Amino acid sequence: MSLSLTPDAVEPVIAGLLGAIDVDGGPTGEQMTVLRALASHIWDYRMAEADVITPLGPDALAAAVTDPMDRRHFHEVLVVLEACRHPLTAAQVTSVECYSIALEIEDSDQSLFRAYAAAGRERVSADFSRFMVANLAAREEPGAADGVLGDVDVSGADPGLAATLASFEDLEPDSLGQALLAFYRRHGIPLPGVQASPMNHFFVSHDMTHVIAGIEPTAAGEVALSAFQMAMDDNPVNRAALLLSLASHETGFGSPQTFAPEERTLDSADAAELLGQEMARGGQCAADFSLVDHLALAPLPLAEVRRRFGVCEPERPDDGHHHWT
User: Fold this and answer.
1) What is the mean pLDDT for each group of 10 consecutive residues in the chain (325 residues)?
2) What is the 3-state secondary structure (H, E, C) of the chain?
3) Distance in angstroms (rounded) separating the CA atoms of residues 311 and 292
4) In this predicted structure, what is the pLDDT of residue 256?
5) Would you tell me how many other CB atoms lie within 10 Å of the CB of residue 172?
6) How far apart are CA 222 and CA 34, in angstroms?
7) Alpha-carbon torsion, ordered 20, 22, 24, 26, to 10 deg
8) Overall pTM surpassing 0.70 (yes/no)
């Protein structure tokens, strides 16, 4: 499964994560809650409150963990923990950088957190917007690309896209397309294309991913969905999706023109558990369905689409963060 570790790497990775967040007087309560949830669900490692684990520094961790994928997975979890520190301090950012250097991890995305810690939210919002735009094209719906569904009109709306989505009403009741329309009705969301937005094609792909995964667009659900995607395939596109989600829903420096910025979404045991559960569930999928041609799949039964990609039922389908039919 994606984000898995070789057996001998589990304990040193957890010790390294503890070392990396041991700054400014120690880990925060939120960081520890999230770390316990991720360790339990991803690596089947239960960290009790009374556990005494000796943290590992950067060099000691590098000596103990040599597999490149184990190192990458350590870093990906560390980025989540970094975002969970409030306020995000220079000491925390520097600590993450030290571990990245020791493990020979190159990650230009971390510059967002570095700028945030150094200059504050207003300064970094512009950097966030540029980062988001640079990654937007990679997440647009493939079947809606290149004007296939019609040109954007003078208002910036995309009536061809909206009409294609509206036509899903003619599909079978159990289809993916009908489930997408139900998703929009349930949350009072207008069909992408009705309103002017440079993100209309992105929203189709993103919302289809919500529906197939069965994850609702709560704040905690949005972070969990991005973690689910990265666990399906921790490629650069999915890593960027998780970073964007953390920036919008955890650190609060998302662009107000695109998302309503939120903070401390993971600062509850329920949200942390959801994150761990969905990261584990995403890793059990047979393939990454977040970047496929969802419009081509729309006529198929939702249950068949889920079977095709190995999407299993969530642990708690009635927790308010899921819609599973």
Assistant:
1) 88 97 97 96 85 92 97 94 92 94 82 67 65 76 63 72 96 98 97 91 95 96 96 90 87 60 89 97 96 96 98 96 96
2) CCCCCCHHHHHHHHHHHHHHCCCCCCCCHHHHHHHHHHHHHHHCCCCCCCCCCCCCCHHHHHHHCCCHHHHHHHHHHHHHHHHCCCCCCHHHHHHHHHHHHHCCCCCHHHHHHHHHHHHCHHHHHHHHHHHHHHHHHHHCCHHHHHHCCCCCCCCCCCHHHHHHHHHHHHCCCCEHHHHHHHHHHHHCCCCCCCCCCCCHHHHHHHHHHHHHHCECCCHHHHHHHHHHHHHHCCCHHHHHHHHHHHHHHCECCCCCCCCCCCECCCCCHHHHHHHHHHHHHHHCCCCCCCCCCHHHHCCCEHHHHHHHHCCCCCCCCCCCCECCC
3) 15
4) 47
5) 12
6) 16
7) 150
8) yes
The position carrying tokens 């349930």 is 186
User: Residue 226 and residue 86: Cα distance in Å, rounded?
Assistant: 21
What is the C-alpha separation between 198 and 28, in angstroms, rounded?
38
What single letter denotes the amino acid at residue 292?
Answer: V
Map out the domains of the chain as residue ranges.
7-106, 141-309
Please tell me the predicted confidence (pLDDT) of residue 121.
Answer: 63
Give the whole-angstrom CA distance, residue 22 versus residue 219. 27
- What's the CA gap between 150 and 47, in Å, rounded? 53
The residue to which tokens 């990650």 are assigned? 107
